[in-house]
Design goal:
This protein has about 300 residues and is an alpha/beta fold. The protein has 2 domains: about 1-210, TIM Barrel (Alpha-Beta Barrel); about 220-295, no CATH class. Helix content is about 40%, strand content about 15%. The chain has 10 helices and 11 strands. The protein has helices at about 15, 50-55, 65-75, 95-120, 140-150, 165-180, 195-200, 210-215, 255-260, 270-295, and strands at about 1-5, 25, 45-50, 80-85, 125-135, 155-160, 185, 205-210, 220-225, 230, 245. Helix 6 (about 165-180) runs parallel beside helix 7 (about 195-200) and helix 7 (about 195-200) crosses helix 10. The two termini are about 20 Å apart. The structure holds zinc ion. Zinc ion binds near residues 252, 254, 255, 277 and 280. This is Queuine tRNA-ribosyltransferase.
């Protein structure tokens, strides 16, 4: 099971520190050309469609335009594996049942058109389309998953889970996994440790998270074994939140260099260093959950955190 770290053009380049990191990037204009600038290019990619970005814009690009951005990004790094995701109509902006239903139908229509784009283009065989399962309850998730399967999708992602509480999220993931098989399922944008436990239990193929960067931007540092988060004592967080004013022992590439850098709130350059440290600890926490499930040794360092030979 793999943890894709969500990445955009202004974030830390995780692969320069951890060459095996799987990366999820959105096909939005600002990210174009950004992967080319990484010293070490990602080998495993998910190219999302950036729908959360596009729905906020006055006008929306066509499916083909987004597809062109995604394929141009592939040429920047030539990964070993890549999943391309079609445009999904975000459901979190929809309030009534009929609006939610229409969003789901629209997403299925996009999925169909997207497969047509794939069938008329010549792409390397390491590139595969990923269908987005959407729904607002078990019945609609099952419906959406069956429709995508009928169209011919073999890889699936489940999204629009942002507004649900974690128990509901887990039920929805389980429901989708029952239809398409957990091995074929990616979970978009899940951040909590309880969800990670549940996903490992269900056996989904992968998930993605932007949490290392988000937390770093909000002046938080992670530590693992056990996993915990602290606010920098210089931040303006509520006084009741756990705070820290100096680094704890850590073997990440940032702390090995100069751990005090984590505690410099801004500019952005320090936020990036903090996000690399946070990624290291979230990856350890995730790896330990997997090891515990498999009855393995939790002291083993994840392959993702090793330098490439
Ligand atoms: Zn560190």
């Amino acid at each position: 099971m793999e943890f894709y770290v969500g990445w955009s053009h202004s974030d830390a380049i995780f692969t320069n520190y951890f060459p095996n990191s799987p990366i999820l990037v959105s096909g939005v204009p600002d990210n174009r050309g950004a992967i080319r600038r990484s010293k070490i290019k990602p080998e495993k990619l998910i190219l999302d469609c950036g729908s959360v970005f596009y729905v906020k814009q006055k006008s929306r690009p066509t499916l083909k335009e987004i597809y062109n951005i995604q394929t141009s990004m592939l040429e920047e790094c030539r990964p070993r594996s890549a999943y391309l995701v079609h445009f999904d109509e975000p459901m979190f902006t929809k309030t009534t049942l009929s609006e939610q239903y229409m969003a789901m139908e629209r997403t299925l229509f996009n999925a169909y058109e997207y497969l047509n784009l794939f069938s008329i283009s010549v792409l390397p065989n390491y590139v595969e389309p990923m269908g987005v399962i959407q729904g607002f309850d078990e019945a609609s998730i099952e419906f959406s998953a069956y429709e995508l399967t009928k169209m011919g999708y073999k890889n699936f992602g489940i999204g629009s889970l942002l507004t649900k509480n974690h128990k509901r999220q887990i039920q929805m993931i389980k429901c989708a996994a029952d239809v398409v098989g957990p091995n074929n399922l990616h979970v978009f944008g899940v951040t909590g440790i309880p969800q990670m436990h549940a996903m490992v239990e269900i056996g989904v193929r992968s998930f993605d998270s932007t949490r290392p960067t988000m937390a770093a931007a909000f002046f938080q540092v992670f530590y693992s074994r056990p996993f915990r988060t602290y606010f920098l004592s210089k931040s303006h967080a509520k006084i009741s939140s756990p705070r820290l004013d100096e680094p704890l022992p850590c073997d990440c590439p940032i702390c090995r260099e100069n751990a005090a850098d984590l505690f410099i709130p801004s500019p952005r350059e320090y936020m990036r260093l903090r996000s690399v440290h946070n990624y290291y600890h979230l990856q350890i926490a995730f790896n330990d959950i997997v090891a515990e499930k498999n009855g393995g040794d939790i002291d083993v360092l994840s392959n993702v955190l090793r330098a490439r030979n």
